[in-house]
Amino acid sequence: MSSTFTIARGFVFLVFMAVASIHAQVSYYVSPVGNDLDAGTSVETSWLTIQHAADILEPGDTVFILAGIYDEAITMANDGTPSARITYQRYAGDLVILTSDLRVSKDFITIRGLELSGCSLWVDGHYGLVLDNHVHHSAVCGMFIHGTYNLIRGNRIANNGSAWGDQISTGWGTGDIHHIVFEYNEVSDEEGQGEDLMQYLSHDFLVRGNLFHHLGSNGRHNDVYQSGGGEYNIWMIGNRFEHLSNVQYFQMGEGDHDHVWRKNLFYGNIGWGFNGTPAGMRVVNNTFSLTGPSGGDNGNWGVGGIGKAMNNIFSPAGSDGHGGDVDYNCVYPAPCCSEQGTHDLWDVDPLLVDPEHFNFDLQPSSPCIDAGIFPAMTIAAGSGLQIPVTDASLFVDGFGITHGDSIQLQGQSQIVEVISIDYSSNILTVSQPLEWSNGTGVSIAFRGIGPDIGAFEFNNIVSGIEVQLDEMEFGVYPNPASNTIQLSGLEAVGQQMQIFNVLGMLVCEVSLDSSGYIDISALSKGIYMVRNEQFPGSVFRFVKD
Fold it and tell me: What is the pTM of this model?
């Protein structure tokens, strides 16, 4: 795998900084009743077309788009800069619907809060932010992801591809696409419109914390992820793949290598599992709960013939379960035709909380707690910020545009963030200094004495959060957030609120003021939960950016 930061990338960044405009940042407004001859600097003097705004916006400017339906092909005129992005976003909570393709063709552009109906969103520029949009019912792919160093977060992408295509794709013939982060989005095809959920991800692509659901049984060839060949440095981390029907997780392409599937949940009727074995494929700490027919080409395969599988739960395991270089997995009930790893929990019930209602957390008595193996080890004793490890490719640093992995060393309680990785030398650079011996285990942050088996580390503080979140009628705004969050739908002014990290550890306690705001500026980047001390069943999840 290639190093995250390159000289060329740094040079481009510095050039942009050097030529940043001294133009004063301006907010403009567009509405269906506006006039392009007006000033555009207030709601009362709003412009009529988004294109007029695109012609005028300079670095640092924002256009707020008021509620309405806009049918216009927009050509962006100017780039933003690293310190002065150009932003297109909806006004307040307005419903803004675009009915023609939107192409983000310039660099350092932010697109936020828009709905694209019957059309596609094309991310063609570099260093873009695509946040909180809704893309649906395009006849082709819902979102075409091109360019480099683009962050795509918090979007809803659904029911696209009725003519051809998928929910998201890098498309064809679009050049060298790399360093893309696709995280905390929801992607689905409840209406059975398209083919795959993801297709052609190129290289250096992080897919993290997303909810993918409802795919398959529409008479088309359905894959969760189909490779176009030659794809490498792909990380699938912390996603939920739900309500699948007769689909493949992954269709390999010729020349693929270094794909990491880590801490994902898969459940549903699986026609095939990982169809192909790219060099350097790693399947670590996932939970597979597979149902449906068994035997033959429609068999309920889990992981067949992959490069390496460890710390996974297969329950039910399907007709053929798993294969390849496997160990330290929990397989229950034991399938007919799978190889057993030396340290596998074979035909041992993992004791999940309530899989029938989609809660795949571990019960307190689960045999999977602390039963996993450390997926990497240090290769020399040392101290400081740079840790040499056996397999740096298991981890990701966020490419400098989002947070990196939170890791923990064997026998230590301190959790640190991975801020950069030299994959060629297998060296992790972390946010705080540590000390280690030769052969010390290295893992994603865990509770207890070591990593658990399965996607969900045992946590009896906020256990079952996924189910609770689906039932609540409140929210956190903005989400993701950098400095403050505001809670809605809960009368809690003056009450104590508790914030936990992803391991369920209490980070801090705060009291809500009359505005309902909580200051999170001191938190490190990552995923957190906040709950009302008096109502511990009410749990909010948010991302600190």
Answer: 0.82
Angle CA(384)–CA(386)–CA(387) in degrees, nearest 5?
A: 100
Q: Are residues 437 and 297 in the same domain?
A: yes
Q: What does pLDDT average to over the chain?
A: 83
CA atoms of 309 and 305, how far apart (whole Å): 10
Say whether both 426 and 476 belong to one domain: no
> Is the same domain home to 393 and 495?
no
The sheet with strand 376-377 has its strands ordered as 376-377, 441-444, 406-409, 415-422, 427-436, 382-388
pLDDT per residue as tens digits for the range 215-262: 876 777 778 888 888 889 999 999 988 887 777 777 888 888 899 999
* 405 and 540 housed in the same domain: no
pLDDT one-digit tens code per residue, 476-515: 667 777 888 876 554 444 567 788 776 566 788 877 765 6
Structure-token pair, residue 140: 């082709």
- pLDDT, tens only, 105-157: 999 999 999 999 999 999 999 999 999 999 999 999 999 998 999 999 989 99
Closest CA to 225 of 203, 197, 245: 197
274 lies in the same domain as 296: yes
**Domain of 499?**
465-544
**Quick check: 134 and 115 in contact, CB under 8 A?**
yes
Highest mean pLDDT among 274-278, 294-298, 434-438: 434-438
Q: What confidence tens digit (pLDDT) does each residue in 341-376 have?
A: 899 999 999 999 888 877 888 999 999 999 999 999
For residue 222, being part of any structural domain is answered with: no
Integer angstrom CA distances of residue 460 from 122, 361, 413, 498: 42, 9, 18, 15
Examine residue 153 and state whether it is found in any structural domain, yes or no. Answer: no
What φ, ψ does residue 154 adopt, rounded to 5°? Answer: 75, 20
Return the pLDDT at 16.
Answer: 39
Q: Are residues 381 and 434 in the same domain?
A: yes
Let me know whether 504 and 454 are in one domain. Answer: no
**Measured distance CA(206)–CA(35) in Å, rounded:** 42
Contact present, 78 and 55 (Cβ < 8 Å): no
Pair of tokens at residue 424 = 């060629």
Query: 519-523 — which CB contacts under 8 Å span 24+ positions?
Result: 519/483, 519/484, 520/481, 520/482, 520/483, 520/484, 520/485, 520/544, 521/482, 521/483, 521/484, 523/499
- At residue 106, the pLDDT reads 98
Residue 127, in any domain of the structure: no
Query: Does the pLDDT value for residue 5 go beyond 50?
Result: no
Helix (H) / strand (E) element for 199: namely strand 198-199
State both tokens at 207: 């897919």
Is residue 58 in some structural domain? no
CATH number of the domain bearing residue 539: 2.60.40.10
Total tally of structural domains belonging to the chain: 2
Whether residue 420 sits in one domain with residue 443:
yes
- 281 and 259 Cβ atoms separated by less than 8 Å: yes
